[in-house]
Amino acid sequence: MADQLFLVVTFGIxxxxxxxxxxxxxxxxxxVVHSLWLALPLAVAYGIAxxxxxxxxxxxxxxxxxxxxxxxxxxxxxxxxxxxFVVVDLFVGAWEVRDAQRNGIHHGFVVPCxxxxxxxxxxxxxxxxxxxxxKTRRLSLGPD
Length: 144
Prior knowledge:
Layout: H1 2-12, H2 14-22, H3 27-33, H4 39-51, H5 65-71, H6 75-102, H7 107-119, H8 121-136
Helix pairs in contact: 1-6, 4-6, 6-7, 6-8, 7-8
């Protein structure tokens, strides 16, 4: 089941990224990507991955790198981690689009950041931060 869930999540998320890239202002992008409707099925998938994880290693945990390695010692645990990445990456991408719209940043500058966020979220967020800094001349992400 983990293999099928991986495919569903991995390829199922791509249309939502396409909406962010190609139709950021479309009402369905606003209704689906910029809402909690998408988070709910992903949370269910995450829960399934967690619930089916047979890992009972006493060494697993968050207190050290070897403990984290033990925590991700099964296919189901790795799938749960993957779903975690997918959810957070999409959240960051959606935030980039909303923030750019609020700040009047042309979407053409955001698209490369979105693609980078999809592949490597920390770099994509940093790239968007640089675009935002150049366009708004502000380091703060908060309101003025």
